Amino acid sequence: MKNLEELVEGINMKKSITIFVPAYNEEEHLEKAVKRYDRVARSVVNDYEILIVDDGSKDKTPVIADRLARHYSKVRVIHNPKNMGLGYGFRKAVKLARKNYFIYLTGEGEAKDESIKSLFQHMGEADIVIAYLSDSRTRRLSRRIISRVYTEILNVLFGNRVKYYNGHSIYKTSLLKKVKMTTNSFANQSEVLIRLLKKKHSYIHAPYQVAKTKGTTLFKFKNMIGVGKTVMKLFWEINIKRDI
Q1: Beta 101-104 vs 170-172: how paired, if at all?
Q2: Closest Cα partner for 90 from 154, 155, 18?
Q3: Per-residue pLDDT band at 213 (split at 50, 70, 90)
Q4: What DSSP string describes the chain?
Q5: Which has the closest alpha carbon to 181: 172, 191, 196?
Q6: Which of 172, 202, 191, 203 is CA-nearest to residue 244?
Q7: CB 171 within 8 A of CB 192
Q8: Shortest CA distance to 25 belongs to which of 217, 222, 232?
Q9: Quick check: 214 pLDDT over 80?
Q10: Domains, the chain, ranges and CATH?
Q11: Using one digit for the tens of pLDDT, what is the confidence trace for 14-53?
């Protein structure tokens, strides 16, 4: 008779997952990141795919992505003719996803291997595995403050108790294919989570850690404007119009 740990491992090995990797000018990081994702996924699940969405990169990212697809059978590449934004790439990857679960991991490869593996092992415990940073000290103080304020504002506006809206959460792909997604901005993950939670889908929180990174373009003025517009639109649609 197998013990509980072996049974859980056996269940996990039957899961399948799509790994969405957005890449915009990531020539320095993409190859290493994708190789890591492939290695970690292979150690946890039998059935997975890696979807690289090259978002109109102007460096060697498209060439590197195509080379990875030739060398790794699990890798597929989508090239956007111009930069469309994270939300657009997310929607495109969801539309093309063939596996039961879906996760977004950066082209920079910031998440640590053990953290990714741990997140994968939570797959199937709920409709959504909401990933949150267990130690944010690897990021600048200004980014930590803005992220905390953003999280608290969304929780107050939409009545949630989410620890983090922009982490590497795992979703049932079938839910993502049905949920309304309207923004190309960095607020895409927030929109998805808010709409799914309003539909009363089950969730758990799971921690993850990241290495120090080159930083993010999230706090560029145009991105902040896009996030603000999305939040206001969400508030109107969900809290006023009741359109989830």
Answers
A1: antiparallel
A2: 18
A3: low
A4: ---HHHHHHHHHHT-EEEEEEEESS-TTTHHHHHHHHHHHHHHH-SEEEEEEEEES-SSSHHHHHHHHHHH-TTEEEEEESS---HHHHHHHHHHH--SSEEEE--TT--B-HHHHHHHHHTTTSSSEEEEEES-GGGS-HHHHHHHHHHHHHHHHHHT---S-SSS--EEEHHHHTTS-----STTHHHHHHHHHHHTT--EEEEEE-B---S--STTSHHHHHHHHHHHHHHIIIIIIS---
A5: 191
A6: 191
A7: yes
A8: 217
A9: no
A10: 4-140+166-185+199-215 (3.90.550.10)
A11: 789 999 999 999 999 999 999 999 999 999 998 999 999 9
Q: What are the distances in angstroms from CA 121 to CA 15, 17, 45?
A: 10, 11, 9
Whether 216 shows a pLDDT value over 70: the answer reads no
**Would you give the distance in Å from CA 56 to the centre of its chain?**
19
Q: pTM (2 decimals)? A: 0.89
Written as six digits, the tokens of 122 are: 């939570």
CA distance 194 to 122: 21
Which has more pLDDT, 222 or 115?
115
pLDDT for 211: 82
Determine phi and psi for 171, rounding to 5 degrees: -120, 150
Q: Three-state SS string across 147-188, please?
A: HHHHHHHHHHHHCCCCCCCCCCCEEEHHHHCCCCCCCCCCCH
